[in-house]
Design a protein that fits this description.
The chain has 13 helices and 14 strands. The protein has about 375 residues and is of the alpha/beta class. It has two domains: about 1-100 and about 260-370, Isopropylmalate Dehydrogenase; about 120-255, Isopropylmalate Dehydrogenase. Helix 1 (about 15-30) crosses helix 11 and helix 6 (about 165-180) crosses helix 7. The longest helix is centred in the C-terminal third of the chain and has 28 residues, at about 345-370.
Length: about 375
């Protein structure tokens, strides 16, 4: 397998966690005999410092010429005084638009080893395994007109969707649900918003093409509550941009830390992969950031851009094994709990060691299966 991966580490803890994710991908390539080519370019605040813009043309060109883009995080307090179009986050939005990925996949899962990290009761979170499919290129984040009239004391944004935008992301949700537990929960606010009425109608229409997948509709406020009191009832959650952003972050409570959650943006010319957490400038450079979200993001990259499902599962198993053995970065430590404190680099090395063992064990079995 040949794969060109562009790394845009970005700001804050982005470089620290992407370094560990890249090391994991290199381990997969070395053991599996794959040819992964890595390059790096700036984005966000790092790009503003270097090139005066949050998404330089050279970075965009490199992204479009790659098979996959691995992002760290963007943003920093020093840029808050800039106008919105010049801030680091604008670079990320521009990159998403240019790559064309319209479906953001965000898993949220309960690790038994981290049950004590969630404020929810273990019997509530146990077995929870949710995949959020968030529409990423429409809604309030991109709708026009939008403005802040500071002199007039007013501001406005536009929530807008077309039927085709809803249909294409709904197909992604139903296809993925068909590979899981065959249920889609579509989230809207159809009792108030005309946009949500369109959303519900289009999703219902798509559902007719997937008779083996159950569909339910929930209002966003009800869904927010049920995610906390009955998370096992959800399989694939389909939501528009704003609702999906909020609900998938809320679901980090199930896992116990935002630092554990990966994401993938698919559907465009080049898929974009990034951990859900932000740049966390307050802990940048201290070696305490949790790299597991970025490492699990690397697994999603292998799954969706390289179709290396076995290797993706091996990464996920290596993460679970590391957690089961009690290793914890600072965000996963709890007062009074037993655990082995590790730095960002140590956590990455531990996962890398376990991944190597898993992949090397698998090779003789694969060879035996081929001979049979």
């Amino acid at each position: 397998m040949k794969l060109k991966v562009l790394i845009v580490a970005g700001d804050g803890i982005g470089p620290e966690v992407t370094r560990q994710a890249a090391a994991i991908l290199k381990t997969v390539a070395d053991i599996g005999g794959h040819q992964f080519q890595f390059s790096e370019m700036p984005i966000g605040g790092a790009a503003i410092r270097k090139a005066g813009a949050p998404l330089p043309p050279s970075t965009l060109d490199a992204a479009l010429a790659s098979d996959a883009v691995l992002l760290g995080a963007v943003g920093g307090n020093e840029f808050n005084s800039l106008p919105p179009a010049a801030r680091p986050e604008a670079g990320l939005l521009q990159l998403r638009q240019a790559l064309g990925g319209f479906a953001n996949l965000r898993p949220a899962f309960a690790h038994p080893a981290l049950a004590a990290n969630s404020p929810l009761r273990p019997e509530t979170t146990s077995g929870a395994d949710i995949l959020f499919v968030r529409e990423l290129l429409g809604g309030l984040y991109f709708g026009e007109p939008r403005a802040w009239d500071q002199a007039g004391g007013a501001a406005w944004n536009t929530m807008r969707y077309t039927r085709d935008e809803v249909v294409r992301v709904a197909h992604v949700a139903f296809r993925l649900a068909g590979q899981r537990r065959k249920k889609v929960t579509s989230v809207d606010k159809a009792n108030v918003l005309e946009v949500s009425q369109l959303w519900r109608s289009a999703v219902t229409e798509v559902a007719q093409q997937y008779p083996g997948v159950a569909l339910e509709h929930q209002y966003v406020d009800a869904c927010a509550m049920h995610l906390m009191n009955a998370p096992r009832n959800f399989d694939v959650v389909l939501a528009e941009n704003l609702f999906g952003d909020i609900l998938s972050d809320e679901a980090a409570v199930i896992t116990g830390s935002l630092g554990m959650l990966p994401s993938a943006t698919i559907g465009g010319a080049v898929n974009l992969y990034e951990p859900v957490h932000g740049s966390a400038p307050d802990i940048a450079g201290k070696g305490i950031a949790n790299p597991l979200g970025a490492i699990l993001t690397a697994a999603m990259l292998l799954r969706h851009s390289a179709q290396l499902e076995t290797e993706a599962k091996a990464i996920e198993s290596a993460v679970v094994q590391t957690l089961d053995e009690g290793y914890r970065t600072a965000d996963l430590e709890r007062a009074g709990a037993t655990g082995k404190h590790v730095s960002t680099e140590e956590a990455g090395a531990l996962v890398q060691e376990r991944l190597s063992e898993i992949l090397k064990r698998a090779r003789p079995m694969e060879a035996a299966a081929e001979r049979a």
